[in-house]
Amino acid sequence: MLQENDSLSTLTAAANADMLHHYGAAGTVIAAAPGRVNLIGEHIDYCDGFVLPLAIERYIVVSAKLNNSTEARLRSGDQPEAVIDLSSPQSISDLKWSNYIRGVIKGFNDLGHEIPGFDACIVSSVPSGGGLSSSAALECAMATLFEGLLGIELGIREKALLAQKAEHDFAGVPCGIMDQFASAFGEQDQLVLIDCRSSEPEMVPFSNPDLSIIVANTCVSHDLSDGGYAERRKATEDGIAIIGKESWRDATLEDVLTKEAEMGDRVFRRSRHVVGEIQRTKDAVTAFKTGDFSNIGQLMADSHASLRDDFEVSCEELDLMVEIASGLEGVLGARMTGGGFGGSTVTLCETKHAEEVGKILHDRYEAKTGITPVIFATRPAKGAHVISQS
Ligand code: GLA
């Protein structure tokens, strides 16, 4: 019961068919950027931690052509058309989906690049609201499209940071750097280990065909901009301020335990998550580098428990999906992934059992909740790139 991932050529054909239908001609520049799934290192990208995501074989593809005007006209699925005036400064619009794009245009403008008028159609295989960073994929796809339209290349880091700023300023989510970095830096068969203190990515090979990554979208979602995310981020800032150190990377569990009374229960538990998760991620990186996975299941289980009990970003459906996966034949480990409050889990499993694991996750989750989940396997995929240009 593993859902197929549409190929880039299928998505490109769909985007071009939409271009033909809405704007009378296929695109001349086609760009793509993937969503991401995080193996471990959750809610610590804004705490100078380490995170270990990968770009997934689920993409946003945008096909575009210049239209000799000063307007951008964009379509995405059945969303109302977005018409953006490129000759005046960008601001937040009531048409929510267009704000990611406005934010990216603003980023280019701030760098001194005017965007010429264009028509574009966007198609996506990244489930929206699935905790798989469809917004980062959209931002990175648009930034890559603009590079193509302008005939320039920003550095990958610069592009990822521009995309992150779009998310902060135009979508109101004070996110860390993980999603945009994974979408921009992703490479086939490589995990993207990010040192969030130095903003340095390091590729960690994941090419063993005997191991598979299964993503299970619970299909329940809560909007990250509803304040839950910002509250978590603020609590970690309060925690490190009470500890009195410059960075979470210099803090220890002992620091947290010593300050328990001063922190109060909530900030204490958020802080305990941060130091624990930084250590677990370092240990998991060792497992991926050495191929010794004897403790990966425990690390993923501990990460999930900490996100559920201390950081309080899980929910019943995520807990259920992890519980179903845990202990199944061939499963090495499972946990919630991404911002939480719904969204997806990630399960590391032996490839020979992946189909069966996918089927059990699907059937048992559906039987218990009445919700049909979306389950697929992925390998680390190529990050944002121009597919073609004519
Ligand atoms: C969201 C944010 C990321 C990160 C994760 C949690 O996906 O966009 O920056 O904080 O939540 O790890």
How is the secondary structure organized here?
Blueprint: H1 8-23, E1 29-38, E2 50-51, E3 53-66, E4 71-76, E5 82-85, H2 99-110, E6 118-124, H3 134-150, H4 156-171, H5 178-185, E7 190-195, E8 200-205, E9 211-217, H6 228-243, H7 253-258, H8 260-290, H9 296-309, H10 316-325, E10 331-337, E11 344-350, H11 351-369, E12 374-378, E13 385-389
Parallel strand pairs: 4-6
Antiparallel strand pairs: 1-3, 1-13, 2-7, 3-6, 4-5, 7-8, 9-11, 9-12, 10-11
The protein binds alpha-D-galactopyranose.
Task: Give unreliable regions as ranges.
Answer: none
Q: Describe the largest sheet.
A: 6 strands, mixed
Strand order of the largest sheet: 5-4-6-3-1-13
Give the helix proportion (percent range). Answer: 40-55%
Distinct small molecules: alpha-D-galactopyranose
Ends distance: 39 Å
SSE pattern, N- to C-terminal? HEEEEEHEHHHEEEHHHHHEEHEE
Per DSSP, the total helix count is 11
Number of strands: 13
Task: Name the overall outline.
Answer: globular
| Sheet/helix structural class | alpha+beta
Radius of gyration, in angstroms, nearest whole number: 21 Å
| Average pLDDT reading | 97
In what range is the share of β-strand residues? 15-25%
